[in-house]
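Run log // design_07
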């Protein structure tokens, strides 16, 4: 799956293990890196049924990567496949933007 980032700061947090450890702590930073690797390896988010994902009412969702830590995402505009009810069809979304991290 293709990942984008809302801000440069979020990109730095997700791509720099050392920075993530200073901001989130060792365990949460390691969990974030594992979850990002899982997302990048998948073709679509629904290939990861074991993930704790809360889907929003529009094109947003939140993925828990460590107890109480959530990665907020949206489907990237222009890649918004709709189902018959005009709801986002997450089974075909292959591009997401990371919007932020919600801390406990």
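design_07 sequence
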């Amino acid at each position: 799956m293709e990942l984008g980032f809302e801000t440069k700061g979020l990109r730095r947090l997700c791509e720099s293990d050392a920075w993530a450890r200073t901001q989130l702590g060792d365990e949460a930073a390691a969990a974030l890196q594992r979850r990002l690797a899982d997302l990048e390896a998948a073709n679509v988010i629904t290939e990861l049924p074991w993930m704790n994902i809360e889907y929003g009412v529009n094109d947003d969702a939140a993925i828990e990567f460590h107890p109480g830590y959530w990665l907020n995402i949206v489907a990237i505009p222009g890649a918004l496949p709709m189902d018959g009810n005009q709801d986002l069809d997450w089974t075909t979304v292959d591009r997401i933007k990371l919007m932020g991290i919600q801390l406990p």
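The domain at 2-102 is CATH 3.30.2310.20 (YaeB-like fold).
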